[in-house]
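User: Hey, my collaborator sent me this sequence without any context and asked if I could get a structure. I don't really work with proteins. Can you help?
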Amino acid sequence: MNKKYTLLLILLIVAFAAAGLAYVTLSEFTPSSVEGKGGQPAPAQPTNINQSDEIDTSDWKTYRNEIIGIEFDYPSDWSEITSEGLKSEDRGDAVWGTFSLDLPDLSHVNHTFIDYDNLSVNEQYEKIKCYEGDVLAVVCEERVNRYGTRYVWLVEETKGDPAYGALVPTGKYVLIFDFQEKENYKKRSEEYQSLLNSLRIVE
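Assistant: No problem. I've predicted the 3D structure and written it out in structure-token form, which is a compact way to encode the shape of the chain:
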């Protein structure tokens, strides 16, 4: 009888150990545990941007382009951004788009996701917002700026450093503000974030 009780006790210990191991393993792969690690960001609620951390933008210039449906402010010491700087491109695919606007250093604004052209802002936003399964995204934040403009802030894995940028639905096009990799982004990170906070949709 003692041998039977001993065997039963061993079987119970093994069963509890196996259950505990399975629980820990499954917990490691939930969306919340991999968020921010290049895994699967959980769906996010729009975040209002805190204004208190902004730099002084009182002397900034304004760029407005009714063709692409956007207006934003930029530092007065940047080179003049004009509509003549909008370079046409014929990429011929359904992801990367048909024009590019140069910003300082290596940054630029591109037309992207051309299949979503001329949808409403809400429809475009639903198609580009954060979702589970985006294996490239290290950070994905759905934001609302001071003017109520919604956009998606992304930090994505690349072969080198993470790449920084924002997707902006305008109701005409989906724009990507591409600030390139970490070394380039960090040069003007406060200016870039304040620029995004100044975005206005042009009807």
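In plain terms: The first strand starts at residue 47 and ends at 48. You can pass these tokens on to your collaborator as they are.
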